[in-house]
Amino acid sequence: MAIFFIYEKYKKIILLNSILSIFTLTAFSQPYYTIDISNQSYSIKENFLKMGSNFAPNGNTLSYNNRYLTKNGKPWFPIMGEMHFGRTNYLDWESSILKMKACGIEIISTYIIWNFHEVNEGAFDWTANNDLTTFLQLCKKHNMFVWLRIGPWSHAEIRYGGFPDWLINKKLALRTNDTAYLHYTKRFIKEQAKQVTGLLFKEGGPVIGVQIENELDFKKEADFKHMLTLKKQAIDAGFDVPFYSAFEQGVDSQNEFLYTIGGYPDSPWNQGTKKLFKTLYFIKPLEKDSDIGADLFGKRDSIITNIHPKIGAEIAGGLQSTYHRRIVTTPLDIAAAAVTRVAGGLNGLGYYMFHGGINPVGANNTLEETRLTGYPNDLARIDYDFHAPITSMGVTDNAYNELKLLHLFIKDFGTELAQCKAFFPKQMIKTHNSNDTVQVGVRIHDNAGFIFLNNYQRNIQLPAVENVQIHLLQSSGTIEHIPTSSFIFPANSYLILPYNLKLETAVLKYATAQPLCKLKNGKNNTYVFFSDELSEFLFTNVAAIESSQSVVRVNMENDTARIQIPKNKSAFFKVITKDKKAFEVILLTKAEALKANKIVSSDKEYLILADATVYQNDEIINFEKLDQKPLVRFDVYPEIDFNVLDNNIVFQKIGYKNNFWGYSIKPKNSIAIAKAHVEKLSNNVPLETMQQSQDSIITVYSKSKRFITNQPGSLHQYKFLDLPNQVKYNISFDIGNNDLVKDWIAKFNYQGDVLALYNASNQLVYDQYMDKGSCDIRLGYIIKGKKSLMAQVLPMKLENNIYVEDAYQQPRREAWTKAAINSIYMLPIYNYKLAIKN
User: Fold this and answer.
1) Which spans in 29-155 are helix H?
2) What is the CA angle 250-251-257, rounded to 5?
3) What is the 3-state secondary structure (H, E, C) of 38-63?
4) Pick the CATH number of 62-415 from 3.20.20.80, 3.30.360.10, 3.90.930.12, 2.60.120.650
5) How far is CA 678 from CA 393, 726, 746, 790, in A?
6) Of 182, 501, 563, 659, which one's alpha carbon is 20 to 30 angstroms from that of 45?
7) Above 70 in pLDDT, residue 501?
């Protein structure tokens, strides 16, 4: 140590810090946590793509550069979610749009599926669920952008990828520049354009983007020319929009289409039936999912070579079960995959699907993708729930709240995030089962940004990891340690940490809590974080920290404040900066954050923590709850004055705690209940007749080149047909009327292979491949005023080669070979409305 004393004081300190940093790096840290962020510069390239009009009448603009999209000249990190208007009940469009908006979705992407609209050649249907114009008008009403996926080929797990049967029967050279084929694509695109008149961005409407085709790899010259022809048909028809996109990279250096990216945590289209371990949860330089389309076209190259801004179109919002792969995703499966894509450099999220759907039924058939129609997969005939954050029945699932944590963060910090360059350790983790390290990446711009950590892998239980500390190598040669002391990273979790984040005139050097959102409330802004672990905030340029809570432990040294909050505690404190400005910090537990909703009124922003789905329609706040218990409790910060809009509810203020005001809502009177009556029906058809029916179905199926004997696909039909080993039920419903109950969900707890529901005309109205033991149907969607259904349950053959998730393997072996409905549990969808007083 004597060597240091030959230097002046300041030189001693610099050298000592440098040597200690190097010593710490080499002796105590793992290389997986060391990231060189010294070169943060990058060049911006603009106006290199052939896009359309990007000015709106109100002066708003949309554009792009090689790094990110822009809105009104500022970096923009958009969040897009897929909702197929043609697969969604039009009576529920508005509430679904508002739920998507409440979750942070800014753009709704939607296919215009050809065989929904032109079942018979030349006769177009744009009514009811097919009414594109009304759907777009609702999006405009609620300030939601729309990205149309106009085809002509969509895929979308629909029959012939959306091509109508009559088009298939013409035996044309589809998806080429064949003159006869182009005649029909031109007509279809023109018909779409008519529905969009007055609703383009340049006209003050919501339509900002158009995707041409889907999954067409246009690296070959002929395919590129076809894409150009379809784009010209769209422009000639009137589709003049800020962005044209494709779901493939195309030829090198193509400048006609934005390239959009996908990534799924599993592949239900994969022809194998073993457990998959995909690299989607690795934090690494951004790649595309080479498995997308592999069932039709084989494995793709995962390398991204173009310089387009990296935006997503098919980041998984869930996954649809196929007959041979019964996929059930968890909220962490979905959210962790989105976080790792953002960590890898993605600058726009696009989920497929965000809202599940119901396939329409044709005049004489169903429209699902099947092996019989030349595809490698058998999909359920009607069910397209996709295990999405908003289900096919229009109610929110657990992934909705998990994703909202990420979306609220991006909405408030996306401008900074979009500018951040992605950095990774020189030595990255390349194993799915890393028990002693955590995946890490950093996004930085002007030496400020965010640190991403992931300790989650689908199909693997990862333990907590000790001694986690990130080492950032600066351009000065020094190393900064985040946090200053190592910490234990929890099992099966992910985390986003702020780094050198400017909050007003203070700098948050780091926090071991994740940013959730920012509230602008007219006085002091409020920054909201969440964590279940020991939380530490390190601020500089502050004069004082104020808090009346004993859990907030403060250590001040000069202009630096270190604040610590114990595990599993929420907290509130105020930061006073050196120039006498102030802002507030709220720390929530993750359980509280999962209830968080951001509400805006008169340019003020509020946080509502509710045990219900909360969505806003101007000044009216909707509280929707799927539960037997009608009571809704919620907390608000800062305080809001509400007007009660319905005399049938009891609304109470129930207290004040940790700076939040608590409220409750419940019905004034008891709610009329609903009951399901289940009657098992006898099989009156001779077994020989049922066997002949099954044999005839298998004979038809076996004509497919892709038919596999131990993966036969479902035997249930569009028109009811008695089949061997079936169990049939008549199900009738007594439904009580009450204005506070929006609808009823019937939760079928059953065992077997397939559940099929038929109406009084013996026509299929809903079906599901068994994947987790239950099926939820919304009575207002399925029975449509009728009071009864017939259910057909078919058993699963144990010898069938079908992938089932680990959690359901044992029930499958013990029970799914027997067909039965065990119970039907009725759940009301309560809906309460309050108005904000201004």
Assistant:
1) 93-102, 114-117, 132-141
2) 50
3) CCCCCCCCECCCCCCCCECCCCCEEE
4) 3.20.20.80
5) 22, 16, 12, 10
6) 501
7) yes
Radius of gyration of the chain (CA): 28
User: HEC states along 343-355?
Assistant: HCCCCCEEEEEEE
Domain with CATH 3.20.20.80 in the chain: 62-415
Q: Are 325 and 273 in contact (CB under 8 A)?
A: yes
Residue bearing tokens 């009156």 = 684
Task: State yes or no: pLDDT of 264 exceeds 50.
Answer: yes
Q: Give the pLDDT confidence of 298-342 residue by residue, as tens digits.
A: 666 677 888 899 999 999 999 999 999 999 999 999 999 999 999
- Across the beta sheet with 494-503, the strand order is 421-423, 439-445, 448-454, 494-503, 506-511, 535-540, 560-565, 553-557
Start-to-end C-alpha separation, the chain: 67
> Where is average pLDDT lowest: 2-11, 472-481, 555-564, 808-817?
2-11
Task: Give the list of residues 6+ apart from residue 543 with CB closer than 8 angstroms, or none.
Answer: 559, 576, 577, 578, 580
Q: Residue 2, SS3?
A: helix
Helix 132-141 to helix 93-102 angle (10° resolution) is: 40
Say which CATH superfamily domain 430-593 falls into: Beta-galactosidase, domain 2 (2.102.20.10)
CB-CB contact of 155 with 367 (8 Å): no
Phi and psi angles of residue 261, each rounded to the nearest 5 degrees, phi first:
-115, 150
DSSP H or E run through 21 = helix 9-28
Q: Cα separation of 213 and 217, whole Å?
A: 10
Can you count the helices (H) and strands (E) in the chain?
14, 47
Helix axis angle for 179-195 and 221-237, nearest 10°, is 40
pLDDT value at position 27?
Answer: 37
CA 734 – CA 787 distance, rounded (Å): 7
Cα–Cα–Cα angle for 326, 327, 329, rounded to 5 degrees: 155
Question: What's residue 292's pLDDT?
Answer: 77
Where are the domain boundaries for CATH 2.60.120 in the chain?
674-832
As a 3-state breakdown, the chain gives helix, strand, coil percent values, each rounded to 5, of: 20, 35, 40
- The mean per-residue pLDDT over the stretch 452-470 comes to 97
Q: Give the pLDDT score at 2.
A: 31
Pairing of strands 494-503, 448-454: antiparallel
- In the chain, ranges of CATH 2.102.20.10 domains: 430-593
What DSSP assignment string belongs to 235-282? HHHT---SEEEESS--STT--SSEEEEEE-SS-TT-S--SPP--GGGS
Inter-residue contact 83 to 271 (CB < 8 Å): no
- Any idea which architecture 674-832 has in CATH? Sandwich (2.60)
Percent pLDDT > 90 in the chain is: 88
pLDDT (tens digit per residue) in 166-186: 999 999 999 999 999 999 999
> What does residue 492 show for φ and ψ, rounded to 5 degrees?
50, 55
User: Which two structure tokens, joined as six digits, stand for 813?
Assistant: 């072996």
Q: How far is Cα 107 from Cα 127, in angstroms, rounded to an integer?
A: 23
Question: What phi-psi label fits residue 530: left (phi over 0), alpha (psi between -120 and 50 degrees) or beta?
Answer: beta
- Predicted local confidence at residue 365, as pLDDT: 84
SS (H, E, C) 702-734: CCCCCCECCECCCCCCCECCCCCCCEEEEEEEE
Q: Which two tokens stand for residue 756?
A: 């099929």
Beta strands in 448-532 (DSSP E): 448-454, 465-473, 479-489, 494-503, 506-511, 514-519, 526-530
Q: What proportion of the chain, given as a percentage, has pLDDT over 70?
A: 95
Residue 295: the pLDDT is: 63
